[in-house]
From TrEMBL:
<dbReference type="GO" id="GO:0042128">
    <property type="term" value="P:nitrate assimilation"/>
</dbReference>
<keyword id="KW-0479">Metal-binding</keyword>
<dbReference type="GO" id="GO:0008942">
    <property type="term" value="F:nitrite reductase [NAD(P)H] activity"/>
</dbReference>
<keyword id="KW-0001">2Fe-2S</keyword>
<dbReference type="Pfam" id="PF13806">
    <property type="entry name" value="Rieske_2"/>
</dbReference>
<dbReference type="GO" id="GO:0046872">
    <property type="term" value="F:metal ion binding"/>
</dbReference>
<keyword id="KW-0411">Iron-sulfur</keyword>
<keyword id="KW-0534">Nitrate assimilation</keyword>
<dbReference type="InterPro" id="IPR012748">
    <property type="entry name" value="Rieske-like_NirD"/>
</dbReference>
<feature type="domain" description="Rieske">
    <location>
        <begin position="11"/>
        <end position="107"/>
    </location>
</feature>
<dbReference type="GO" id="GO:0051537">
    <property type="term" value="F:2 iron, 2 sulfur cluster binding"/>
</dbReference>
<keyword id="KW-0408">Iron</keyword>
<keyword id="KW-0560">Oxidoreductase</keyword>
<protein>
    <submittedName>
        <fullName>Nitrite reductase (NADH) small subunit</fullName>
    </submittedName>
</protein>
<dbReference type="InterPro" id="IPR036922">
    <property type="entry name" value="Rieske_2Fe-2S_sf"/>
</dbReference>
<dbReference type="InterPro" id="IPR017941">
    <property type="entry name" value="Rieske_2Fe-2S"/>
</dbReference>
Length: 122
């Protein structure tokens, strides 16, 4: 079966089965920020820039609990829904719109690749 990787403004990044519940994978972006895609234990998927708002720890290596990831460096809790630091910590990491359709994960193209002009010029 062939599945297009260009469905409108959404990037097909592969099947949901590539990320087991409670884990994350990263998506390198040429000329942009690496994205972390999370699969929660209650079967939700979220995507964030893979940099903690504290000191840029790799959130993809953190522990997922509920809809939160604990940063592996200093244990800040970051909301997977909003990208915001929770509790008394302050800061926010950009989120990337994500959808799941027919067992595949899609990211909003414009959020992953913000400037097509810049890419062409590179
Ligand atoms: S870098 Fe994430 S808590 Fe410090």
């Amino acid at each position: 079966m062939t599945v297009s990787n260009n469905v409108g403004d959404w990037l097909d990044i592969g099947p949901v089965s590539q990320i087991s519940p409670g884990n994350a994978r990263t998506l390198p972006v040429r000329g942009g920020e690496e994205i972390a895609i999370f699969h929660t234990l209650d079967n939700q998927f979220y995507a964030l820039v893979n940099k903690c708002p504290h000191k840029q720890g790799p959130l993809s290596q953190g522990i997922v609990h509920g809809n939160v990831v604990a940063c592996p460096l200093h244990n800040w809790n970051i909301s997977l829904k909003s990208g915001e630091a929770l509790g008394s910590d302050e800061g926010c990491v950009p989120t990337v719109p994500l959808k799941v359709d027919a067992g595949r994960i899609y990211l909003l193209r414009e959020a992953v690749i913000p400037s097509r002009t810049a890419r062409k010029a590179a």
